[in-house]
Amino acid sequence: MKVLLIGASGTIGQAVAKALATEHKVIAANYSGEGFNVDIGDQASISALLEQVGKVDAIVSTAGLANFAPLNELSDADYELALNNKLMGQINLMRLGKEYLNKGGSVTLTSGVLSREPMSGSGVISMANGALESFVKASALELDAIRFNVVAPIFVKETMAMMGMDTAGGLSADDTAKAYVAAVTGSMHGQTLDAPDYV
């Protein structure tokens, strides 16, 4: 399969690229750096990317920005970033990308465990994650030409270690990637794939 991976240079993205590349052709896209460049917060940028890449069998997003901050410290810009990038940016990957999918293709987005297990400071992240999961579930009822799913990672050990956190409750990026591979190669539709379930 030909897979367009957005956010390929991130911690999870790199692991997903490595896991998929064993059997599939991975086309990397990032906000900056190697591969194609795309800003998922900008519809024109997404359209330009899709025009450049052409038809694919799967689109996977491990991208999406949202800030972690106490509720009383969140600004309008924090809400707008989560809504325009993490939420609508990924939704637009499906809205625009479905026209570039080969028959039986799939789109896989990224939410996160904070949708159902929030913590102090996760307000806008939990908001975007929960909205993504609900949108995928509802949209799948009307999408019969493609499969549409979302992966919900838990905290990634590599990121936790980088932040000086205890990694005991995390999941490695390589193990997290297994849920994305399942979404791309499986038959599920309208599902939230909890990453720990695929280890």
UniProtKB/TrEMBL annotation:
UniProt cross-references to Pfam families, sorted A to Z: adh_short_C2
UniProt keyword annotation of Cell membrane present: no
PANTHER family, per the entry: DIHYDROANTICAPSIN 7-DEHYDROGENASE (PTHR43477:SF1)
Recorded GO MF terms: oxidoreductase activity
Stored InterPro entries: NAD(P)-bd_dom_sf, SDR_DHRS6-like, SDR_fam
Name of the protein described by the UniProt record: Short chain dehydrogenase
Keyword entries, A-Z: Oxidoreductase
Stated family: Belongs to the short-chain dehydrogenases/reductases (SDR) family.
Source organism of this protein record: Thalassomonas viridans
